[in-house]
Amino acid sequence: MKKISLALLLLLLVLSGCTKKEAIDFQSINPQNDVYYEIFVRSFADSDNDGIGDLNGVTENLDYLEALGVTGIWLMPINVSNSYHGYDVLDYYDIDSDYGTMADFENLIDEATSRGITIMIDLVINHTSDQHDWFIKSRANNPEFRDYYIWEGTTAFSSFVGGMVDLNLANEDVKSEIKNIFDFYLEKGVRGFRLDAAKHFFDKPGVAGVTLKNAFFMMEMNAYIKETYPDSFITAEVYEPNYEFNVDYYLGSDSILDFTVQRAIQERIGVGSSTYLLASTFEKVFNAYRKVDPGFVASPFITNHDMDRIASMSGFNGAQGMARMKLAANVLLTLPG
Fold first, then answer.
1. What is the per-residue pLDDT across 228-278, written as a single tens digit (0 to 9) for each?
2. CB-side exposure of 267: number of CA atoms within 13 Å?
3. In a domain, 102, yes or no
4. Could you tell me which of 73, 166, 185, 57 has the C-alpha nearest to residue 120?
5. Catalytic pick among 98, 104, 122, 196
6. Which domain holds residue 140?
7. Is 117 a member of any domain?
């Protein structure tokens, strides 16, 4: 009898220990908290076994992403492009055929929205492909399109190599084109835009006050999209590890991908350099942003498509690598944004 009672007691203790913990809704604590998952569609999930990831593959994995706690998806470029990476756009109004169709994209948005997952797309407006119809007409001296790009004689200015030519964002017609692109995707249910290469928008020959011009351009675009879609947002990619350089971007952008925080996590946790400075670094960075925009939204991250995976980074690839990666992930998920 004692054995049965003891066994029953142990069973009750085990069962009580297996009670599911109540999930904490971090968004109810801070509505600005989201967990975004960056997806390079080409390499994420292949739904039709052609060896190339596609939008339907993303849709088929939404339950998996939801189970991870993901509340937003950042899609790297999905438009028609010459390259595998998609940052040289040929057509802003169509989907790369490798990835599927516009109907597939609309279905992804609908399915994600039904799960409470928002979609942010990578919008490349600093430059286009040199095979884009606008550029072909500009190069041919078509007066309607000539000033869409920045010309020095017969050479168009390029911030990047590989057939990517910079748009003239000071041109009102170009601004109108970009606003039309925003409208097109907002109407389909896209909520956010990651503006690629925002640091380079006005970083052109002979241009002064580049940072403020970049910020004011984004301010104009942000005000435009919020007129009709007040919950829409812009996140700027400013590839700069010095947070003091980034402060003014909060004048125009809702958020900035924070390379200062990224480097702090890598160096303080991965490399183990001056770990005690980690919290004070975060505080210093966020306080600087707060002075410009008291309601700023942070966008901290550990790594992205322009960097190595965390497991390959210095300090995370050694004997203590797994423990350090877990610590870095915990730190990231406790930060605001």
1. 999 999 999 998 888 888 889 999 999 989 888 888 888 888 888 787 888
2. 14
3. no
4. 73
5. 196
6. 128-168
7. no
Catalytic residue status for 94 = no
**Among all chains, which residue has been given the structure tokens 């399109």?**
145
- Do residues 139 and 129 lie in contact, with contact meaning Cβ atoms separated by under 8 Å? no
Asked if the structure places residue 312 within a domain, the reply is no
pLDDT on residue 8: 31
The secondary element (H helix, E strand) that includes residue 219 is helix 210-228
pLDDT tens across 194-232, in order?
999 999 999 998 999 999 999 999 999 999 999 999 999
Give per-residue pLDDT as tens, 43-90. Answer: 999 999 999 999 999 999 999 999 999 999 999 999 999 999 999 999
- Under the phi-then-psi rule, with left for phi > 0, alpha for psi from -120 to 50, and beta for the rest, what region is 116? left
Give domain status of residue 149, yes or no: yes
Q: Which of 307, 296, 303 is nearest to 337 (CA)?
A: 296
Structural domains counted in the chain:
1
Provide the whole-model pTM. Answer: 0.88
Q: Is 196 a known active-site residue?
A: yes
Task: Check 98, 237, 254, 267 and give the catalytic one.
Answer: 237
Which two three-digit tokens encode residue 112? Answer: 């994600």
Q: Of 213, 196, 106, nearest to 159 (Cα)?
A: 196
Comparing C-alpha atoms, which of 102, 48, 104, 44 is closest to residue 73? Answer: 44
Read off the CATH number of the domain in which 142 is found: 3.90.400.10
